[in-house]
Amino acid sequence: MSSLQLLWFFLIGLLFSVFFFLEGFDYGVGMSLRVIARNERERGELMQAIGPHWDGNEVWLITAGGAMFASFPYWYASLFSGFYIILFLTLFSLILRGVSFEFRAHSESAAGRKLWGWTLSIGSLGAPFLLGMMFTDLVKGMPLDANGNIMGGFSDYVNLFSIVGGVAVTLLCLLHGLNFIRLKLTGDLRQRAQAVTKVLYPVLFVGLVAFAGLLMWQTDFFTERPISSWILLVLIVLLSVVATYGAYRNKEVLSFIASGATLIGVVALLFNGLFPRVMVGNDPLHSILISQASSTSYTLGVMTIVAAIFVPIVLAYTIWSYFVFNQRVRTKKVVSDK
After folding, report:
1. Where are the transmembrane segments (predicted)?
2. Averaged pLDDT, groups of 10, the chain, 338 residues long
3. pLDDT of residue 333
4. Which of 4, 112, 128, 225 is buried most deeply by CB count within 10 Å?
5. Are 289 and 276 a contacting pair, CB within 8 Å?
6. Helices 3-32 and 252-274: crossing angle, nearest 10°?
7. Which residues, 6+ apart, have CB-to-CB distance to 32 below 8 Å?
8. What is d(CA 245, CA 256) in angstroms, rounded to the nearest whole number?
9. How far apart are CA 111 and CA 117, in angstroms?
C-alpha cells in the first residue's frame, strides 16, 4: 500500500466525517419539524435555521462519492452496484428534502405547507437511517464473489445489526439537530429542544450499548484492530457524555460540538475497522483491499494537487457562510396552519 493510497482512504473518511457533522444537524432539524414544532410558524423558524446551509452541506456527500469514484474505482463499483436499492432510496430521500423547501415556500394553502413539511421530515429521517444501514452492512461483511460483486439476499441488507446501526445514526443526527436548534433559535422551540434532548440522551446510551455489542459480535473490529477500536468506542461514549452534560447544564455550544464530534467518531470507528480493506467479504479471500481498489499513482497524485488547491477554498467559503448567518433566527411573519 502506497502513501497516496493511504492518504486518499483517510481523505474519503474525512469527507464523510465533515458530511455527517454538517448535514447531520440538517437531518435532525428536519426531523424536529414533527417532534417539537406545534404550528406552521414554528416549522418555518426551523426551516429558516438551516435554509442558508442545507444544500451546501449535501455537497460534501457528493464530494465523498466523487472522490471515491476517482481514487478507488473498484470500491465505488462494488459499493454502488451492490447497495443500489439502498442508495436509490437515499437519493430519493435527499430529493424529497430538497424540493420540500421550495414547494413549501410557494404553497398557498395550509394543507400544502403541511404536506411539504411532512415530506421534509420523512426525507430527513430516511437519509441518515439508510446511510447508517449501508455503512453497518459494509463493516459487517457482504457475500462478495471473486470479482467484487455483491451476491446478497434481503437478510444481508436488512438485519438486526443494520437496523440498529441505522437507528443509531438517525438518533445521533436528531440529537445533533436539537443541539443546533438550541444554539440557533430562541423561545419555546429552544426550550422544547432542550427538554427532548434530556429524554433522548439516555435512550442513546442504551442504543450505543446495543450497537457496541453487535459490533463485537458481527465484525472483526476487536480481533483485528482491538486497541484502536476500543479507543474510538470509548471516545464516542465520552463525547456523548459531554453532550449530555451540555444539555443538562444548558451549554449549547458544548452540546453541539460534542454531538457533531460523536458522529465523526462513528465514521472514524467504521473506517478504522475497514482498514486495510474497502469492502469486507464474508469470505476473507474475497475482501477488497485498499491496494487492490485504487487508481494509479499518477491519478492519485493529480487528485492530491487538485484537492490541495480547491478543498481549502471550499472550507473557507463554508466557514464564511456560517459566519455570515451566525445570528439566532427570529421569525417576523406568522403563517397560520388552520
Report:
1. 6-37, 83-103, 115-135, 157-178, 199-217, 229-248, 253-275, 295-323
2. 93 94 93 89 86 84 93 94 95 92 84 89 95 95 92 92 95 96 88 92 92 92 93 95 93 94 96 94 92 93 93 87 77 44
3. 47
4. 128
5. yes
6. 140
7. 46, 174, 177, 178, 181, 193
8. 11
9. 10
Cβ–Cβ under 8 Å, residues 64 and 20: no
| Residue-wise DSSP of 181-216 | HHHH--HHHHHHHHHHHHHHHHHHHHHHHHHHHHHH
> 278 — phi, psi (to 5°)?
-115, -25
pLDDT at residue 64, rounded to an integer: 93
Omega within 30 of 0 (cis) for the link into 312: no
* Residues near 228 by beta carbon (within 8 Å), at least 6 away in sequence: 272
Nearest to 54 by CA among 123, 118, 116: 123
User: 279: buried, middle or exposed (CB in 10 Å: 19+, 13-18, 0-12)?
Assistant: buried
What confidence score (pLDDT) does residue 332 get? 52
| Cell numbers at 158, concatenated | 436488512
Place of cell 452534560: 245
